[in-house]
Amino acid sequence: MTQPETFGRYRVVRHLGSGSFATVWLAHDDRLDTPVAVKVLAENWAHQLDVQERFLGEARILRQADSRWLVRVHDLDVLPDERPYMVMTYADQGSVADLVAKGPLPLDEALRLLTEIGQGVTILHRHGTIHRDIKPSNVLLQSSPVGQRVLVADLGFAKAIDEASGFTAAAGTPGYMSPEQSVVGGDLDVRADVYSLGAVAYELVTGRRPPTPPIRVRPRQLRPSIPPALDELIMSCLADDREERPRDAATFTQRVRAIRMAPNLISAVPWWLRHQGAWARASLAAVAALLLLAGVAPSEAQPELSFTRVPDATGEISVAVPQAWARQVQPSGWAPRELGQTGGQQPGLLVATDVTRWRDTESPPSGIFAGLLRDPPGHHLDQIIDGAPCSSPSRGQRLSTEHWTGQVRQWHDCPGSFTAAALRPPDGGVLLYLEIRQREDQPHIVQEILEGARVEAAT
Ligand SMILES: Nc1ncnc2c1ncn2[C@@H]1O[C@H](COP(=O)(O)OP(=O)(O)OP(=O)(O)O)[C@@H](O)[C@H]1O
Fold first, then answer.
1. E-assigned strands of 116-183?
2. Which atom of ligand 1 is the closest one to the Cα of 24?
3. Interhelix angle for 249-260 vs 191-206, to 10°?
4. Is any ligand 1 atom within 6 A of the Cβ of residue 153?
5. Is ipTM > 0.95 here?
6. Residue 166 Cα, ligand 1 centroid: separation in angstroms?
7. Domain 6-88 adopts which CATH fold?
8. What pLDDT digit, counting tens, does each position of 149-189 carry?
9. 64 C-alpha vs ligand 1 centroid, how far in Å?
10. CATH 3.40.1000 boundaries in the chain
């Protein structure tokens, strides 16, 4: 295949891939200085009107739906040889198929992806569209300053809900396609996509594409650590009888979110986590018990303001906080992946007057989040945080003490104050990411907390 030089004003960089009907190129928009993906209808289909119509239909749906969870279409035009092309968001991190090719995903990552895919499909359903071909290779991944974002793509088979009865052609991909999709002339509704969401979920958590229906091997038989609620959800999506499935993608997504929030999946969550909604609530009884077990004791260093040292569940991190802040503790670690960093579950903790309101922008609690990163050399604060927690000006500074070197950024009127810091101990190796929120701005307390944080070598 010869590489064209340009498509209109877009300069072609390289070939990204070819599907059954189209070829996709990486190109550069020199005017806006941004990479784009250009999808061009294949020559052999260029004169087939129904295929052309489908191509244009895909571009229109994506343009009109215009969502951060879907590939966005920025432009549509026609080449001199009359082949249409659409200019889309470039997904620079491949697809979910690449991830799952390496095996089943960690549960927290699988649930995060399923929430995002569910959100993308929900947008389509609200737009009156059935995707009809949801599968891992049609879920693309794009890096963002705060992590990796899912983009549901390839609406080549998509159909308007109100035209979806009496289809003549069967369409979809075996393994992901609902039983009703393989019936010629069968009528469809959004529950066909719910089947596919269940099939994708099955593959993400087991590493195996589900067999053709009826499904006899439950995900928990292949991976016993899967929460029963997730096993149930996947099996209900894959029911032969669509009446037994969740009614739409929104219901599926809600149920995935509820599983993510279950107490046994709790991990501490930094403010900067981009999934604002998916927030685990701490079990207060467990918190009280953990506080006792952790041996919380007032610090002797601050007689005028009593400080307490609180460790995370592994004992690798501990923070000294004003006693009054340590009403609730979530000590069970965090997933740096949520902030776009590498590595699975890591030591981390959240200590606050009310952990459930950690990301409340109007009436924040006082507290501290601390999370460990196995440090890629040269990593710094701006690679972790994205944007600003509020519109007030911020001040950055370097910190260099006996225990830490690093960067600190503070917003003094957020409301209250907000501090983010990335600190390294003298022997390096790890990076401690900290967030400190204070209802009233008292800089000396922030200073004490930064000074008092500790990382012990894991035994
Ligand atoms: N926006 C995009 N950014 C980056 N890569 C993309 C983008 N859209 C498609 N691709 C890649 O281009 C290739 C071709 O995509 P296309 O949607 O034409 O077909 P497909 O989904 O691979 O196959 P089929 O259409 O036959 O199901 C795929 O490898 C896909 O990952």
1. 129-130, 139-144, 147-152, 159-160
2. 12
3. 30
4. yes
5. yes
6. 28
7. Phosphorylase Kinase; domain 1 (3.30.200)
8. 899 999 877 777 766 655 545 667 888 999 998 877 778 89
9. 20
10. 271-455
